[in-house]
Amino acid sequence: MTRRGLRFGLLGTPVLYGGEPAGGVPGRHGDTPVLPVTSPKLRTLLAVLLLDAGRVVSVEVLKDALWGGAPPVSALPSLHNHVARLRRLLDEPGRLLTVPTGYVLRVDDGELDVQVFDAHVAAARAARAEGDWERVRRECRAALGLWRGSPLGGPAPEVGGYALARRLEEARLLLHEWRYDAELALGDDGLADLVPELSALAAEHPLREAYHRQLMLALHRTGRQAEALVVHRDLRARLADELGVEPGRPVREAHVEVLRGSGTRDGSSRWVRPAQLPPAPAPFIGRADVRESIARALSGTDAAGAVVVSGTAGVGKSALALHVAHGLQERFSGGQLHLNLRGTEPGSTPLTVEEALASLLRDLGVPSEDVPQHRDAASALLRSLLAPTRTLLVLDDAASAAQVRPLLPAGPGCGVVVTSRSPLTALDGAARFPLRPLSDEESAALLRAASGRDGITARHPLVALTGRLPLALRVVAARLAARRALTPDDLAVQLASADSRLDLLDYDDLGVRRSLDAAFDALTASERRSDQDAALVLRLIGALGLPFCDAPSLARLTGVDEARAEAALERLADVALLEETAYGRFEPYDLVRDYARERAAEPCAHSPAGCHFASA
Predict the structure, then answer these.
(1) Do domains 1-180 and 512-600 have the same CATH topology?
(2) pLDDT at 139 over 50
(3) Nearest to 404 by CA among 436, 380, 379
(4) For 427-461, how does the pLDDT look when each residue is reduced to its tens digit (9 = 90+)?
(5) Distance (Å, rounded) from C-alpha 98 to C-alpha 83?
(6) Which fold has domain 288-434?
């Protein structure tokens, strides 16, 4: 449509644009002459007529607007006088018409600044949808250049126009957002000049996240990362205190950019490549097929999001995970994170999800004060930081799937190795690798390599006496290495004749009993009936020397129903104290049987024998 030059202004105190009528005192807005309307009554009259431009405004409406619903006796002649004065200011016959019931102010397309403002807003919106940031900036600047203050000069109640004023104010705030997004996208040399403007907007609108996000990015991209992090920290604290929420996704993504150091003007990066893997226990013997399968699961074209290595205490889960992880360092060029979740660590409680997330985020360079307090927000930040990387996470000694799930990255380039007594079957999409004790040949090879005693064969008694568990084998090897006069045969005799082999399978910081204690103590301390039942079943197995157990037999021995007995057995298998060798048939591992006998000999709160269930 044809647009005329600006003639009327409502984006601020009502004014007339263009022309310089006699007696006026013109000013300028940009390159356009401005004739202020100095009389308050005339401004009100002009505003009311412009709000209904092109339509009849009744005499009664105008009287209410001019005199606040209480017009004097002389209101009508006074109104006629004000209309005459406005006509003289307009200095254009036919512009302000008198009709039988009131007045009509004719306004053509493009003559009212609100019309021009709306056209620029529509153009900026279309350009933004097309990703034309140069045009977005141009249209936003043009629209904002029309602004002179509060729309209508802050209308009095009798004038009306509140809905229009609110709409225009919101549009102005949105234009600022679009304009600064365009400036950031174009990345011109003037980014530093945006900081004072954005600081003022962020202070004026403390809960409007967009301005804080843009201020963070402007600071960061001009080399002021520390200040950008302070902006984020203050915003997050304010949102939590006043609204009880965390910043939204756009702010979180900006936070990630600041933390990673990407987007800087010189292209440099502050990202520190984590390299946290502890050394793998050496020597490492056996598990060749499993090692290759895990490596394929983590690095193949159909790589799993995570792999779970599970098994009983001392079976070598952590050693295998570390050995594989060290072999995949080239594949995961983004680095390696290692976190002990303490699921079965003696003398400690498992890490909470919040503690685990905070630890990983700090390891990735997030300052402690910038770690989100809410679990979901912290998990989202972790995923955002890891998404563009090829990082390997080793999550050792997990207690449950619920503990692990929020820690998993979503990026296709990352990998996760989880170790746990439990196979964590509730963890969707994970590849599972349950470990059993080593073979006789592998056990003998580990004993020879770790102790330096060449004569140990697969048939040596030490192989069977250690239950072929790597932890027990390493303890035995450490004893042999420490005492060269102690022969493998002598040590085998000691193990066979001891009241409990577990006493001799404890050396320095290595100990089979300590590893089993954590699982058993967690069961006994639990308030869940199935856990307490499981602890009592293990005592029963030790007291009776049962080589295996099933639910029907256990039900007959204890007098409870089969469902409860089966739940207790399944719980013991879940924490890797029993192995389900066939459906419904559960057997204790060799050294677990010794451990169960020790526990059965201890006093039990439920009976002297320690062998019956608590009442339901």
Answers:
(1) yes
(2) yes
(3) 379
(4) 988 999 999 999 999 999 999 999 999 989 999 99
(5) 9
(6) Rossmann fold (3.40.50)
CB 565 within 8 A of CB 554: yes
| 575 and 569 Cβ atoms separated by less than 8 Å | no
Taking alpha carbons only, the member of 247, 204, 244 closest to residue 229 is: 247
Task: Compute the 3-state secondary structure of the chain and give helix, strand, coil in percent, each to the nearest 5.
Answer: 50, 10, 40
Rounded to whole angstroms, the Cα distance separating 421 from 518 reads: 11
Phi and psi at residue 202, in whole multiples of 5°? -65, -35
Residue 349 pLDDT more than 60?
Answer: yes
pLDDT band at residue 2, thresholds of 50, 70 and 90? very low
pLDDT level of residue 69 (50, 70, 90 thresholds): confident
Boundaries of every domain in the chain: 1-180, 288-434, 440-508, 512-600
Residue 504 CB neighbour total at 10 angstroms: 18
Give Cα 603 to chain centroid, integer Å.
47
Report the DSSP pairing between strands 506-507 and 510-511. antiparallel
Reported as a single tens digit per residue, the pLDDT across 474-506 is 999 999 999 999 999 999 999 999 888 899 999
The stretches of 300-339 forming alpha helices (DSSP H) are 317-327
Least confident interval from 231-235, 383-387, 491-495: 383-387
Residue type, 177: E
Beta bridge partners of 27: 34
Q: What number does CATH give the domain 1-180?
A: 1.10.10.10
Tell the residue number behind the tokens 């963070």, with chain if given. 216
The whole-chain average pLDDT of the chain stands at 88
**CA–CA separation, 313 and 465 (whole Å):** 16
Q: What are phi and psi of 310, to 5 degrees?
A: -125, 165
Please state, in angstroms and rounded to a whole number, the distance separating the CA atoms of residues 579 and 535: 15
CB 568, CB 550: distance < 8 Å: no
Return the number of other C-beta atoms located less than 10 Å from residue 302's C-beta: 6
Question: Is 411's pLDDT higher than 80?
Answer: no
**CA–CA–CA angle 102, 106, 112 (5° rounding):** 125
- What is the rounded distance in angstroms from the CA atom of residue 88 to the CA atom of residue 92? 8
Residue entry with tokens 């962020």: 202
- In this structure, the number of other CB atoms found within 10 A of the CB of residue 501 comes to 21
Hey, what amino acid is at 272? V
Question: Measuring CA to CA, which residue among 104, 110, 389 is closest to residue 272?
Answer: 389
b/e for 196-225, b at 16 or more Cβ within 10 A?
ebbbebbeeeeeebbbbbbbbbbbbbbebb
Residues of the chain above pLDDT 70, percent: 92
CA distances (Å), origin 249, targets 40, 257, 353, 376, 377? 47, 12, 21, 12, 9
Q: Kindly give the residue spans of alpha helices, DSSP state H, lying in 510-586.
A: 512-525, 529-544, 551-558, 562-574
Fold of 512-600: Arc Repressor Mutant, subunit A (1.10.10)
Residues 221, 184 contacting (CB under 8 angstroms): yes
* DSSP string over 344-366: S-TTSPPPPHHHHHHHHHHHTT-
